[in-house]
């Protein structure tokens, strides 16, 4: 089939649901539009759920169970998708991140996931569990996906990674003093790699700081660009150049305004000494 997107059921609960929905549809020989007509929605909606770009709502799964005669199986699986700690849109971003030639990061408040130590990441998720924001199972899901993303950086050839951290990232204490010391050590080791650049955007940038929210920009092997940003509820992957290009321009401006890598590492080294 032309333009049929391959599905990876291990990417997320939403991807597993989408693969099952597609398999049930294929077994009956229905097109997406034919299934949509039976369920009372659009073929575009079916496509978005099958590819994990949209989570299955209770109404959607109830209708699918009725059409396929699967009892409440799809509703129970859909509940697992909705209870996932992985934001909508994030699995689609990760699929692009693991094959990007260049990764540009800007983060506020916490160290970016790709640069976190296991103990630092565990402290962040433990805090979320204690607040009741996520369950322990969801915390494990986040940590497992983060480990997979970090492992992907070791591919050959390695992607070029540019990271600009707001000063709040390195000054905010997370976990015990030992956890924070190890995390700052991790940043120092990251900065020494031949395929990385690490900079700190100091507080005194003020209004000259280009971003008020975290952003990730990817350059793919074909030199096309995508951008990813998220709110508390949802992540969004943007491919259209007219939206991505201004973000790239702003990122380059931020790099120019931020401390050099040498000055950034001097600031981090000062904090390392203070956290010991």
UniProtKB/TrEMBL annotation:
InterPro entries: Cro/C1-type_HTH, DUF5753, Lambda_DNA-bd_dom_sf
Highest rank taxon of the organism: Bacteria
Annotated HTH cro/C1-type domain residues: 21-57
SUPFAM superfamilies per the UniProt record, alphabetical: lambda repressor-like DNA-binding domains
Protein name: Helix-turn-helix transcriptional regulator
């Amino acid at each position: 089939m032309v333009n049929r997107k391959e599905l990876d059921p291990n990417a997320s609960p939403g991807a597993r649901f989408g693969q099952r929905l597609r398999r049930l549809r294929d077994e009956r020989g229905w097109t997406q539009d034919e299934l949509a007509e039976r369920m009372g929605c659009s073929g575009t909606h079916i496509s978005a759920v099958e590819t994990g770009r949209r989570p299955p709502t209770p109404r959607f799964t109830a209708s699918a169970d009725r059409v396929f005669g699967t009892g409440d199986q799809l509703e129970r699986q859909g509940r697992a998708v909705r209870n996932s700690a992985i934001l909508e849109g994030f699995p689609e971003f990760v699929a692009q991140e693991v094959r990007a030639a260049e990764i540009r990061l800007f983060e506020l408040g916490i160290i970016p996931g790709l640069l976190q130590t296991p103990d630092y990441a565990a402290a962040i998720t433990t805090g979320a569990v204690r607040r009741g924001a996520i369950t322990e199972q969801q915390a494990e899901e986040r940590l497992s996906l983060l480990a997979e993303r970090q492992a992907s950086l070791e591919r050959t050839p390695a992607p070029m990674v540019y990271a600009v951290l707001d000063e709040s990232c390195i000054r905010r204490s997370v976990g015990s003093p030992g956890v924070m010391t190890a995390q700052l050590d991790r940043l120092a080791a990251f900065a020494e790699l031949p395929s990385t650049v690490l900079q700190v955007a100091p507080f005194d940038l003020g209004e000259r700081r280009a971003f008020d929210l975290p952003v990730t920009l990817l350059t793919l092997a074909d030199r096309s660009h995508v951008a990813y940003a998220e709110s508390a509820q949802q992540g969004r992957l943007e491919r259209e150049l007219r939206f991505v290009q201004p973000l790239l321009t702003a990122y380059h401006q931020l790099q120019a305004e931020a401390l050099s890598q040498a000055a950034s590492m001097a600031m981090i080294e000062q904090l390392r000494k203070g956290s010991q």
